[in-house]
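Dear colleagues,

I hope this message finds you well. In preparation for our joint manuscript, I am sending the P-loop containing nucleoside triphosphate hydrolase (Parasponia andersonii) sequence together with its predicted structure, so that both groups work from identical material. I would be grateful if you could confirm receipt.
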Amino acid sequence: MVLRPLKGVSLRKYITLVNQQLTLFSGTIRDNITYGPSDNITESEIFKVAKAANIHDFIMSQNDGYETWCGNRAILRNPTVLLLDEVTSALDSCTEKLVQIALDRVMMGRISIVVAHRLYTIQNLMRL
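The corresponding structure tokens are as follows:
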């Protein structure tokens, strides 16, 4: 990767923030996953993202699958930089383990900046 000066707007397209407070837009699960980035997102891309986040099976267990109505948002992005702000701090240990597994996959090949109070969270990520 060649480094060159970027303007703020240009830089923001390479970064995704994942923080401890989940926010979803009112709409379907599909609407929430595909919010913002492009009109040309394929079904297989949506499934790939959901599988990487360990939520595909849960989504498919819902009566309406990806058309299940929910609130707030989750955004389909392919960032160069991930900012992880206490992403597991409000989770029970079972859910945290699933999120950690998903983060292992998502962080590969990306610059990741992690903010966490639990030493375990940082130690777990450092093995990547």
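For the figure legend, we might mention the following. The mean pLDDT is 77. The chain has six helices and five strands.

With kind regards,
E.M.
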